[in-house]
Write a structure and sequence with these properties.
alpha/beta; Rossmann fold
Length: 152
Amino acid sequence: MRDFEHMDELCNNSVHVAPRVLVVDDEAHIVQVVALKLRNAGIDVTTAFDGEEALARLRATSDASAFQLVLTDLQMPGINGLELAHAMAADARFAEIPVLILTARGHLLHEGESRAASIVGVIHKPFSPRALLADVVSILEKGRHAQDRRAA
């Protein structure tokens, strides 16, 4: 596994803006572990502890492209991760933001649920923080390359 070797490629070199990820989980220790691993890799992390707080953080941003990824737990009280992904998909400002789901082993998403909500992957708990970082980096790199193609 490689750590975040290509940070310069993921950053806008003229302004050097780090990629920004919204981490959402109702378990504080999961949020802490994930946020620490991502921050140590140079990623700007915003946290929320449920889907309602995550939607509020998304809506509070003035720039629709403020987040390059939402990493959310599936099972949370109130608005769960799948409902969060669907709410994002229903709002044109957030519909293009990829969503990576964290879930307990044994819980599977149906293909239709994933496609309708920009869900790009599912990671089962317990997870390796290194493997999670590799997945996040891969998603951010794909998003950066897609953004470059649209700008060209």
